[in-house]
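It is worth pausing here to work through a concrete case rather than discussing structure prediction in the abstract. The textbook approach is simple: state the sequence, then state the predicted structure, then interpret. We follow exactly that order.
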Amino acid sequence: MLLTIIAGITVLSFLVIVHELGHFIISKKMGVKVREFGVGYPPRIFGVRFSPRFQFFWGKDPSEGKGGTIYSTNWIPFGGFNGIKGESGEDREDKDSFVHKKIWQRAVILFGGIGMNWIMAAVLIIIGFFIGLPQMVEGIIPSHAQVKDLKIQIISILKDSPAEKVGLKLGDIILNIDGEEFTQIKNLQDYVAQKIDVPMEVKLKRGPEIIIKEVAPQKLEEMERGGMGVGLIQTGVIRWPWYTCIWLGLKTTLYLTKEMGVGLYGLVKNLIIGEKISADLVGPVGIVALAGEMAHIGFIYLLQFTAIISLALAITNLLPFPAIDGGRLLFLAVEGVRGRPLNQNTENIIHNVGFLLLILLAVLVTFKDISRLGGGKILEFVQKR
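Step two, the predicted structure:
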């Protein structure tokens, strides 16, 4: 439980800090003053300022906001933030204020966080290809790729089959049957076909657990011969040479961007027309739980999961919804068409209402997460190349 909480909070905090770092870097490049870049949320533990002179201080800023950017560590250990001058419409006449900058400059700053999350996802996926990613092994593997840790895994279970009755689950790894190990799916299926109505001892790996089940194969209508009633794939950890990892990582990130974009469009459409929302939708609690599961299974799985969540944050922030980057970009587009900005108070009210709606949605999804955590649902990532 403790590992789950630590892993989940670490993943989410890391990605929020990455997002804010994107805004921070571009703001600096565009000449916008960033009053504070904080890790965690206030109250402040300590802060450091490097200009006009080095300062280290506990708690309250002794200079009362004068001077360069404060780099702070804060008591609430979740995420991070930027204090960008003029982001709420103040200091409009100051040249180093966000609101004083041209529309395209403000748009680039807003895209900074989105872009940083996308880049981080790509970097993590590239690292994964270099370290070695768990993948389905099919066809001919290129000679320059290294394959290790081959295993046979369950990907489907027939209803009312022997496998379902004894509690086999999707994702289970078959280690051996009756003490005999198999490296090829066909050999395993041939062995099982000869054991109709004969109990077999099936040794499985489920996450970090080793489980033994007794299964008696049967002649099933869906199959031409006897079996347990499972669909199998062979998976392995495939490590690619460094000179192919960058291209594979970028290609995979683009593929996932397209797939997530289509999925998000479907989700928004269903919300608008009142259709049932997918059961796979998760909120903060669900993400924390999933991060914990990935941490238990292994570092490479946590790495993949972090990449996917980073990409999801990037795509979600593109939505033209108040209070997030996409909503602010929409207001910039309206300003460009009208030739002048909306009333700042009106815009702030709209963003505040949008923020409250997002909080409400997060609370509702969190209740849904909590109610189903005992079900053991794990989101599956199927990577196509």
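Step three, interpretation. Confidence is low (pLDDT under 50) at residues 373-385. Residues 242-273 form the longest helix (32 residues).
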